[in-house]
Specification:
Length: about 350
């Protein structure tokens, strides 16, 4: 019997409460995951809009550098490969080329990209096979911010040539350069996201080590066009509930009015051991950003599933973070990110 990534979903389908993922969404997820081999990734997760009653989640998985999944996507595994329908898709052919280049140990991509996240949006009926792709780009900040910015632009230019057959757009490069140069001391660019299915010439920057006191001055420095009163409210009301946050902004030909705060606890401590989770969820539920049903389903998802086939493994399930999202002319919303790590042995 040939296994696929859908078998992992089957193993955790019971803890993945129907409040988070209903039957139609679950069926669509299994259909999507059947296109990927069983050994593609050991870390995968879900994104749920916690203030909405709809039982649907977006889906993502991680491909780390020098992992079996990276070899599979490069076409270098003689046994495991993508489904033939993906291999015939022009975008996935370009994704294969990226992973081939990443695995050839060339000095640019192999030395600078540490990880790749694929994120698949659910549209209410099915999952989009065209993923958002987030790159964990590592640049040497010790050489100075200017050199760091130029290095990141060169890497993204290479990625753009591979995936889209165009150079990294000049306007995006200028705004990326400005966004990096304006970062507070010690802050850094953690991930760069290409939101491919959304058909926008923009990238998402995931910025770390920015505290609440530095956030508003930073946004003003880069001429962020959003509502600063809302920013102050969000940081005052929610950021302190967690140990730290990660900031998301979108840049295109202009800095866009999108802002999100990914709020985390140190070492990803889980609700069973960290009472701050319950306290944070109390506030978010009282503000109607989290429904009681989604709250309970999130907490009940946490745990561990032991599996003996095809080899002994633990499926460790937990909460990663919550995200507060601020968009232009839209209400604030809260999303929950939770997932599973597969680790060998009992």
């Amino acid at each position: 019997m040939k296994l696929s990534f859908a078998d992992h979903i089957e193993i955790i389908s019971t803890p993945l409460h129907s409040t988070l993922m209903g039957g139609g969404c679950m069926d669509s997820l299994k259909e999507l995951c059947s296109l990927f081999p069983f050994d593609l990734s050991r870390d995968f997760g879900f994104e749920s809009r916690l203030g909405e009653p709809s039982a649907a989640c977006d889906f993502s998985f991680l491909i780390g550098k020098d992992t079996e999944g990276a070899k599979i996507l490069a076409g270098k595994n003689p046994i495991s490969d993508l489904h033939e329908s993906l291999l015939a898709d022009p975008l996935w052919q370009r994704i294969r080329r990226f992973f081939f280049e990443w695995n050839t140990q060339g000095p640019l991509l192999a030395g600078s990209v540490e990880s790749v996240w694929f994120e698949f949006d659910y549209d209410g009926k099915s999952y989009n096979r065209c993923p958002n792709i987030f790159f964990g780009i590592v640049a040497d900040g010790k050489t100075g911010r200017k050199a760091w910015a130029e290095s990141t632009i060169r890497i993204l230019d290479e990625i753009y040539h591979i995936l889209f057959n165009i150079p990294f757009p000049v306007e995006l490069a200028a705004n990326l350069r400005m966004s990096i140069l304006a970062l507070p001391e010690h802050a850094c660019l953690y991930q760069t996201g290409l939101m491919i299915p959304r058909h926008a010439e923009a990238v998402r920057l995931v910025l770390t080590k920015i505290n609440a006191g530095h956030l508003e001055p930073y946004l003003r420095d880069i001429c962020w066009p959003g509502d600063f009163q809302k920013v102050s409210f969000l940081t005052d009301r929610y950021a302190g509930l967690f140990d730290y946050f990660v900031c998301n902004i979108n840049i295109g030909k202009e800095i866009l009015p999108y802002l999100a705060l990914e709020m985390l606890f140190t070492n990803l401590s889980q609700p069973r051991f960290n009472p701050k989770w319950e306290a944070a969820l109390d506030v978010l539920e009282s503000d109607k950003l989290v429904t009681r049903e989604k709250r309970e389903a999130l907490l009940s998802f946490c745990g561990k599933t032991k599996c003996e086939f095809p080899h002994p493994a633990n499926y460790i399930r937990g909460l990663n973070h919550l995200k507060i999202v601020c968009k232009e002319r839209a209400p604030v919303e809260c999303k929950g990110y939770f997932g599973t790590m597969m680790r060998d042995g009992f």
